[in-house]
Design brief:
Helix content is about 10%, strand content about 40%. It is built from four helices and twelve strands. The strands form three sheets. Strands 1-2-11-10-7-12 form a six-stranded antiparallel beta barrel. A four-stranded antiparallel β-sheet has the order 5-4-3-6. The protein folds into two domains: about 5-125 and about 180-215, Translation factors (Elongation Factor Tu (Ef-tu), domain 3); about 125-175, no CATH class. Keywords: Ribonucleoprotein, Ribosomal protein, RNA-binding, rRNA-binding. Belongs to the universal ribosomal protein uL3 family. One of the primary rRNA binding proteins, it binds directly near the 3'-end of the 23S rRNA, where it nucleates assembly of the 50S subunit.
Length: about 220
């Protein structure tokens, strides 16, 4: 099977275990995804499976070009201009690459309950933020005449040498809307009939955001 699947964050809720304890979970619409293309060693120099998620009627030509084989297989009677999958990603496969073919459907059953997974998404955008909120600075001194420096960043560089602000300096700016991965989250429950996965805890991003769920790279014991 493949090591990852695409999904959509639906929101958070809680369920109760056999002991009556409340467990906070995130509900994810995990697939169904379809195999769009196969990357082989002979053709591409590496092996991977390209999967697609969420049908859309508004695709650009490059997106449609990636799916021409899938559209040829499944597009009988459907206009190629109004059909396709919106999100495309390449994932690793544990089985031999010859076991997969374009059009195969992949669901949440690639995971098991109580398995650890890594979840990648785009964090919520928080707009412009200062250094205390964005980088956890503690601010300037509160005494000795520093009446207007309580939330200031302080010095951002030297004078003549190098005579500029070096790249990567932590300063105020746009906060959030970054690619974030949370590791070792537990799969609490899998609903294959409705393509749902319940993951313990919070995952990055807002409701409706795209998620990549993969088997944990460094699972903890």
């Amino acid at each position: 099977m493949v090591n990852a699947i695409l999904g959509k964050k639906l929101g958070m809720t809680q369920i109760f275990n056999e002991k009556g304890e409340a467990i906070p979970v995130t509900v994810v619409q995990a697939g169904p995804c379809k195999v769009v293309d196969i990357r082989t060693q002979d053709k591409n120099g590496y092996e991977a499976v390209q999967i697609g998620f969420e049908e859309s009627a508004r695709l650009k030509k490059p997106q449609r070009g990636h799916q021409k084989e899938l559209l040829r297989i499944e597009g009988e009677g459907i206009s190629a201009k109004t059909y396709g999958l919106k999100f495309l990603r390449e994932v690793e496969a544990t089985n031999p690459i010859a076991d997969y073919k374009v059009g195969d459907e992949i669901g949440p059953d690639v995971f098991k309950e109580n398995e650890l997974v890594d979840v990648t998404g785009t964090s919520k955008g928080k707009g412009f933020a200062g250094v205390m909120k964005r980088h956890n600075f503690h601010g300037g001194p509160k005494t000795h005449g520093q009446s207007d420096r309580r939330r200031a960043p302080g010095s951002i560089g030297a004078g003549t040498t190098p005579g500029r602000v070096v790249k990567g300096m932590r300063m105020a700016g746009h906060m959030g809307q970054d690619r974030v991965t949370v590791h070792n989250l537990k799969v609490v429950k899998i609903d294959t009939e409705n393509s749902l996965i319940l993951i313990r805890g919070a995952v990055p991003g807002a409701d409706g955001g795209l998620l990549v769920i993969r088997k944990a790279v460094k699972p903890v014991k």
